[in-house]
Amino acid sequence: MTKDNxxxxxxxxxxxxxxxxxxxxxxDISLADLAKExxxxxxxxxxxxxxxxxxxxxxNVNKPCTSMSSREKFLIVIETYIMSEI
Length: 86
Fold this sequence. Notes:
By secondary structure, this protein is mainly alpha-helical. The protein has four helices and no strands. The protein has one domain (13-81).
């Protein structure tokens, strides 16, 4: 990984794209596993993934579900589909 200075890691666009691609099918590696493997924080990887998916980084808890687009609802269903039922 490319580092510009000791305080702040900078990653090239190609590196980000390669890692983000791994978080989507067919590999579909989890944020936690990729964070362990690369040493990049889960929050950084999540930000990259959400930006790549074209959705906001933060969920607005004040936004009622009825105002969500069909695409946003569908993406939530896809993300939560693989969660285990406990």
